[in-house]
């Protein structure tokens, strides 16, 4: 967010007062500011560095893309790195739908320590020796947290409680009560177990539904094992169809700001439906089309020339527009 500041720039009234140098006193002509053309609509797949907030990344992409119309799909904490999907211009209207897609993470859980944020950025609340915890018990604990589960979000999450973000209330010293929510952990695979004195470091890969907190998985695994736990490392490897293979670092994007075109972005993330010229006109005016039997999620609608026209969803026997991208 930016606001204009300073004075209005208006010059004092000197009408009728001749200039001392004998000139006409006419103000010099101002150079007209050249308006920068808007960038193409599409997605930027960023490999977010540690220490940056998702808002920091959006601010940087606004400068690199040359537009204020930039947003992101799915917040990453400052500690986390990896895939952050950024939308530019009309593609910002895709972001809410991309947020709902499946995500992948690599992380490290430290057993034997509990923190007030469920990750390494918080204060340690308790320490317990995890030396006696067997590998088999860790694997059993992970298995119990796989599949459809009820999960309580971290107190420092962005979930709103009585209209205010939970993390703001928690950081003000308030005990925040958050309700458990249904999430799905499609896969929770241990890749390494390392014993470091009384603590255990567990490396894992997780594939999960939208709304799943990996910090909460770390906390709940430690609690189930009776020793406490928190997340010490997190890297998001995938958001829907976009993974680290197509993500670019901030430095790479500063050299060349690569924007994935809207048509490619929609085709990669959603089922595709091609329509006729008449149907394209109907969609462009917010009209509905007959059901296509392509499932319950968003469907990308493309015109005869390959232009992406809209996202729609099936409602009974018709397709209802979710977002229309053409005038």
Any key phrases for this structure?
single chain; 327 residues; alpha+beta; ten-stranded mixed sheet; five-stranded mixed sheet; 8 helices; 19 strands; elongated; disordered N terminus
Give a structural overview:
This protein has 327 residues and is α+β, with helices and mostly antiparallel strands. Helix content is 20%, strand content 33%. The strands form four sheets. Strands 1, 2, 3, 4, 7, 10, 11, 12, 13 and 14 form a ten-stranded mixed β-sheet that branches. The protein is elongated and about 70 Å long.
Element layout with pairings:
Elements: E1 42-48, H1 54-65, E2 70-73, E3 81-88, H2 95-98, E4 103-111, E5 113-115, E6 124-127, H3 135-144, E7 147-151, E8 160-161, E9 164-165, H4 166-171, E10 181-196, E11 199-208, H5 214-225, E12 229-239, E13 242-243, H6 250-255, E14 260-261, H7 262-269, E15 272-274, H8 277-284, E16 289-290, E17 299-302, E18 308-315, E19 318-324
In short:
The chain is α+β, with helices and mostly antiparallel strands. Helices cover 20% and strands 33% of the residues.
Strand content: 25-35%
The low-confidence parts are 1-25
Shape: elongated
Mean pLDDT: 87
Number of helices: 8
Percent helix, as a range, is 10-25%
């Amino acid at each position: 967010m930016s606001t204009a500041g300073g004075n209005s720039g208006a010059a004092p009234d000197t009408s009728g007062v001749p200039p001392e140098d004998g000139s006409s006193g006419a103000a010099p002509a101002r150079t007209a500011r050249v308006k920068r053309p808007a960038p193409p609509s599409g997605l930027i797949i960023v490999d977010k560095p540690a220490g940056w907030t998702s808002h920091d990344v959006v601010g940087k992409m606004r400068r690199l893309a040359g537009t204020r119309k930039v947003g992101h799909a799915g917040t990453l904490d400052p500690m986390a790195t990896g895939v952050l999907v950024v939308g530019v211009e009309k593609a910002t209207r895709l972001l809410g739908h991309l947020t709902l897609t499946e995500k992948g993470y690599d992380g490290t859980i430290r057993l034997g320590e509990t923190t007030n944020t469920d990750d390494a950025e918080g204060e340690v609340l308790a320490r317990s020796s995890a030396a006696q915890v067997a590998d088999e018990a860790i694997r059993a604990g992970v298995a119990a947290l796989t599949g459809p589960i009820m999960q309580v979000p971290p107190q420092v999450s962005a979930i709103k409680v009585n209209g205010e973000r939970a993390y703001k209330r928690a950081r003000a010293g308030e005990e925040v009560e958050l309700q458990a929510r249904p999430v799905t952990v499609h896969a929770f695979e241990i890749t390494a177990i390392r014993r470091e004195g009384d603590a255990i470091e567990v490396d894992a890969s997780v594939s999960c539904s939208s709304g799943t907190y990996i910090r909460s998985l770390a906390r709940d695994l430690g609690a189930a094992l009776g020793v406490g736990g928190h997340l010490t490392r997190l890297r998001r490897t995938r958001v829907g169809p976009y993974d680290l293979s197509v993500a670019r670092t901030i430095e790479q994007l500063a050299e060349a700001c690569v924007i994935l075109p809207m048509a490619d972005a929609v085709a990669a993330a959603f089922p595709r439906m091609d329509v006729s010229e008449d149907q394209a006109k109907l969609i462009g005016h917010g009209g509905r089309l007959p059901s296509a039997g392509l499932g319950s999620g968003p469907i990308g609608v493309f015109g005869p020339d390959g232009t992406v026209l809209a996202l729609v969803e099936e409602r009974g026997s018709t397709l209802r527009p979710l977002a229309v991208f053409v005038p």
